[in-house]
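User: Hi! I'm working on a homework problem where we have to compare a predicted structure to a textbook description. Could you give me the structure for the chain below?
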Amino acid sequence: MTSAPEPWTPNSDIFNPRNTATASLTLPSDCSALLPEKPALPNGLAISRRVRFTVPATGTAALQARQVARPALTLILGAGEQAERLSRRIETCLAELVALAYTVTTGEDLLCCVWLDAEHVFLSVEHEEPMPRVASDITMGLSVVKAIADDYGTHRTDTGYQTWAAIDRG
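Assistant: Happy to help. Predicted structure tokens:
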């Protein structure tokens, strides 16, 4: 079993450009040659191991989440047959999590997140109401998540609930 992922807060003080203590790193001029040169990217393009996006809480939320996640996963996972198979598993699991969260949300949007560590891809969807604990159509929908993910769960956050899944990258 995988341990639950730590919730990510975008205003974390790990690196905050407004915090002058962590905003810059000054190296002596003779050490700069030791650092690899950053690849040139087009303006506005950044590659990260974490993608956060919202989809409107409508009946098409699952499809929209898939459509947004697909190009991001190509950038994160790279190309190749193994990456394509993993990407399809991630898209399917994310779509199912979004569809489940849509049924228990009262807000206008669902916040989706996909991030990686060395061994897993984590997916999460934030929603306002908890998932039901008794058997229902909603909990039956978790069978797809159970079949795809290596671990999954839900926990309370400051703004509601987060339902997540972890998929092994291997």
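For your comparison, note the following. The longest helix spans residues 81-103. Confidence is low (pLDDT under 50) at residues 8-28, 30-47. Good luck with the assignment!
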